[in-house]
Write a structure and sequence with these properties.
The protein is of the alpha/beta class. The chain is built from 15 helices and 17 strands.
Amino acid sequence: MQGSARVATRPQDWTRTSSLISSDPAVADAIDTIVARVEADSQSFADAEPADPSRIAERDGLLERFAAIRGRGAFFPYLGTGRGRGALVELVDGSVKWDMISGIGVYMLGHAHPVAVRAALEAGLSDLCMQGNLQTNADALPISELLVREASRTSAIRHCFITNSGCMANENALKICQQKTGAAPRVIAFRDCFMGRSTTMAQLGDGPAYRQGLVLSQQVDYLPFHDHATGARSTEVALRQLHELLHRYPRQHSCIVVEPVQGEGGFKTAPREFFAALFDACRAAGIPVWLDEIQTFGRTEALFAFDWLGLGSLVDVCTVGKMSQVCACLYTEAMAPKPGLMSGTFTASTSAFHVGRATVEHLLAGGAFGADGGNARIHAAFRAAVDRLVARHPAAFPPVRDSVGTEQAGFAGGVGGMCRLSPFGGEKSKVDAFVKALFEEGVMTFACGHGPYHVRFMPPVGAFDPSEWLPVFACVERAIVRVISAA
């Protein structure tokens, strides 16, 4: 899916033509040369490679310095060189890994993609590295307009406020909802959700470890997320609990917030009917609907997961981040906040504005979305690879049951570029051992879920071909065998 074709500057796009240096033919030729050189260098990466023994000491020394300055070591011995190709990335020890976590969903174009390299080089011509709310260059406008244009196709969203992290975008969303509901003190969320690691977002998220030792000040009521094993009954249970909350705390909720696909919670999905029933009840009670798309944005079968689920008409606020590079809180005209509620010294870097915009445009133009789009094909190939793996190693795939004993259907889950594998019955110690064995075999992944535990794969869908699951799963199979042998 990579291509080095030079993107023509659009005459109406004054943010790219206002600078004399950026329109200088010599500068344009220099950018072309750099992009071509980077792309040529990236062609040397074809598969995972082991570390160079002569470079391991250098790696270990750097990691020790990082551990000393941070006060703790890294989960993986990962330090990149800045070189790679698509889903392949080179580390300072000379090893090459299949990057199946993409910075937990950030690197949608993978490594050294010519579209991203070009956009970053163009951004480097600017006078600013970081931009902010008080003083911003024109770069912030096109990406903001692009997000609103795509969101407004099926929703009433009309505004976009850029901020410096997904967590801060969520903070802004909560503030907007609180202001519009007269400082209603409670929030409705879902079990196993994750909202970020600020003081408030750690309290909204259903992860006790993330709020250990914090002063708890935010009142949160959790609903059960959809359970595919019980189907429509799952919706009935959640809806009944919602009505009980509304009766117990009338006019006390500022919003209902949900991830369309739970990320940290285990890549759990739910049908439209589940969300629609709950959202209709909340809107009838005057409770705003907020969708957290920090992780789902760009990874389902539509740019926005609410569009994929047909929920646009029910959305009041939506937050995005990760693959968009810039993070943002999107909202309808009715939810527009009063002056002073939102600000911040930084919004994003100039390169984030350029690379984020280029990434979204590349996915929209490259056939990533739709029932037969690139994201759907990647996911279908993933499930097929899991089926083959389970058939060859059934001992590694005992039934997976949740905390109440309900058996999970299948060992693959998620949607689009959010792919979940459930080995070893979801047992935490074995899943953690498997993730580390995967890294040693050449694949970077990460765990998710709160019991049972799973392994999540987030390939860079803008640079990943479904056929690449073959070498990835060769590494996966070796890691499975290692964990089985060590048991």
